[in-house]
């Protein structure tokens, strides 16, 4: 049954009966970044077909949709962050929309509602586009601004798996494309150029026009046009919560001094640097124009921190990535000139003077809100900043559209990048501090997530919900040790490490009362270090067909299910005071300010994975009617008086 509409009111999500909703979901899915069926990064390509690809079939073919969506609902999730990309909608060219894909995406969204799942739409991107090492924007965006993506690799302007990886080699991990190295693209020329023009073309290159409009308005206009195409098709579906603004956007060079190289945290920039070449914006601009530059290179030390270890000459071949006959727009705008083969900055440092929060995100959020609410005024706006904004001390702008949700992302960066998790010897990648034991890790998780959530209280309208739009764990920890054990039939305890890590994450979010959508559910995932989620060797899917046991059960194919399928109060008849789950005892406790004037019931998910032998329910504080539904994995409680209601659920015995 399709659920009724839920709206954001102050810091809460409320349904039409006035009940408080807790959104616990999953991203669907990781392979939506690439075309169907053979667009995954495990396949070589030169992207020559970028205008003719199709994304129909991502996240799964329609005839498989019910099975996957039923599994997600069976695990207790009540929402999905449904991925699409600008490329999926508008790959054929500016204003040429793929209506077959739009029909397909609309049907996937509708089917999600039939399985009781709320949906918010995520226009996903990572490092701008597939041609620059990630996903998101169509290939023609490079052509429109005058870039030739076929030269990116030769000029070292982008780090792309398909250009670096030896597909004929039996080695699945290769030095030419280290694991989790795709993020280094954010500092390289292709990304820096595109994001800077997208956010700040009006300020930095005011005379650079495409089809009669400034490049910033051109790029943002087409992005919002693709979003408009999706929004108009979903407007009458009550289970659609709203739209994400843009997944993990980069700022490009906005807010950076043009000649600054970030080599270490400082008062000016407290963010710890990342691995790869430490390029100043001017270095990258020079490389793009065919100049060679010598820069420091940062690599990870034993703590996972990035430190300078060498220097390197980049674009030694002197390859320009500008198309023949096209001038660099930054040079045309008088931001620099070339003297004796070296780029020299000129005039006012316009880049450094741009305020990311107020000059970039504030107007963009309002444009996205206007685009989607033209079709459904009640939709929420799930707002994101760049993923390192909090660490760098940047805050959300003060002037936000109404019903804006803090949809920040959070990961244990050390675990994500190093693909290791040892509770007795763990590392905080943000500070470099060593952690000994689960309590130390849990305290850090609560602190980091709490820092993100505190901003929500200052959102207009009395605050806003915090929904962690992405978090999760790599399942290929320790070079895929779990997969080897699975293949050898040694399956008992194969996910113990993964369940412990997930449990600590959900414990922290329960303690803070945060909503979440875990990254991710990929229908095409494989237990293969080359493939994983089908994108740049990431492997964070909670499902894989390689985990299917053939039992035909609703949860077959799950990975570390006990780590994420946990009891929680999906909906409360009143207001949720607190809730928590002890994984050791399988005891769940929730406290609710019960209000019989609120229609409906308090609805608690009670997963069979933790209560295979049955469970008992104790309800104290107010008189209430209790309906226990073990087969449906639910307990429903209707309070008949006002007061604090305490609910405890524990295993039989």
Fold blueprint:
Layout: E1 6-9, E2 12-15, E3 20-21, E4 24-28, H1 65-74, E5 79-84, H2 86-90, H3 99-114, E6 118-123, H4 140-145, H5 161-164, H6 189-204, E7 209-210, E8 213-214, H7 215-234, E9 240-244, E10 276-277, H8 281-288, E11 293-300, E12 306-314, H9 329-332, E13 336-339, E14 342-345, H10 356-373, E15 380-383, E16 404-406, H11 413-418, E17 426-427, E18 434-435, H12 438-454, E19 467-468, H13 477-487, H14 496-512, E20 515-521, H15 561-564, E21 568-572, E22 574-582, E23 587-594, E24 602-605, E25 615-620, E26 624-629, E27 634-639, E28 643-651
Parallel strand pairs: 4-5, 4-20, 5-6, 6-9, 9-15, 15-16, 19-20
Antiparallel strand pairs: 1-2, 2-3, 3-21, 7-8, 10-11, 11-12, 13-14, 17-18, 21-24, 22-23, 23-28, 24-27, 25-28, 26-27
Helix pairs in contact: 3-7, 6-7, 6-8, 7-10, 12-14
Strand order of the largest sheet: 16-15-9-6-5-4-20-19
Which blocks of ≥5 consecutive residues have pLDDT under 50?
none
Task: Report the average pLDDT across residues.
Answer: 96
* Largest sheet: number of strands, sense, barrel closure: 8 strands, parallel
